[in-house]
Amino acid sequence: MTSDVPRPKQDGKGGHLYHDPVVNLSPAQLIAEAWQRESAQTQEFWRQAEAKRREQYSAARPPRPRSGRM
Predict the structure, then answer these.
(1) What whole-number distance in Å separates Cα of residue 37 and Cα of residue 56?
(2) Distance between CA atoms of residues 51 and 56, nearest Å
(3) Is 14 left (phi over 0), alpha (psi -120 to 50) or beta?
(4) Per-residue pLDDT tens over the stretch 42-70
(5) Radius of gyration of the chain (CA)
(6) Backbone torsions φ then ψ of 10, nearest 5 degrees
(7) Which residues, in sequence order, are CB contacts of 9 under 8 Å at separation 6+?
(8) Does the pTM of the predicted model rise above 0.85?
(9) How many Cα atoms sit within 13 Å of 70 on the Cβ side?
(10) Quick one: three-class SS letters along the chain?
């Protein structure tokens, strides 16, 4: 089966005709750029979700009972 999705055209050298500037960025830089593209509402949603997660996992937990085996 063939796909109707258009593919980037290639030149005679076998490379792509376009240059993707993202290639030279680190993962941290890519994440920072993606964060800047998010809406203010989405950023606030993730800030609140992270605060809830931090509170949940940093809260003191009751000690677990020890088993009687040795």
Answers:
(1) 28
(2) 9
(3) left
(4) 999 999 999 999 999 888 888 888 876 65
(5) 24
(6) -115, 150
(7) 17
(8) no
(9) 0
(10) CCCCCCCCCECCCCCECCCCHHHHCCHHHHHHHHHHHCCHHHHHHHHHHHHHHHHHHHCCCCCCCCCCCC
